[in-house]
Specification:
The protein has 2 domains: about 60 residues, no CATH class; about 40 residues. Helix content is about 60%, strand content about 10%. The chain has 3 helices and 3 strands; from the N terminus they run βββααα. α2 packs antiparallel against α3.
């Protein structure tokens, strides 16, 4: 098997004797491993950055006890205040696109 990359450093392994699509550049196995590691590290960084909004939201949401207390007391004003606080957190820490 030979190793190839495209202009975006996407890796391809093509069996010997198989046609090579246009736009691919042949690379060594060592270079393929290096690019693969870099691609993985970039993917992990992007994934962690997207997950960061979850951590931010979890620490910013109001205490669940506020909701339970308002619900048990059937306090519509307190329920609305809790809802407003939750929506403010969602607005401050929006989901990343495509998440």
């Amino acid at each position: 098997m030979k190793h190839y990359k495209d202009a975006n450093n996407k890796l391809f392994g093509i069996a010997n004797g198989q046609p090579v699509p246009a736009g691919l550049t042949e690379i060594t196995k060592v270079e393929a491993e290096r690019i693969g590691k870099l691609n993985y590290e970039k993917f992990r960084e992007e994934e962690l950055a997207q997950m960061d909004y979850v951590r931010q939201r979890l620490t910013a949401y109001p205490e669940l006890g506020e909701f339970v207390d308002a619900w048990v007391k059937n306090d519509q004003a307190a329920l609305e205040e809790y809802r407003r606080k939750c929506l403010a957190v969602k607005s401050k820490y929006p989901k990343p696109p495509g998440f």
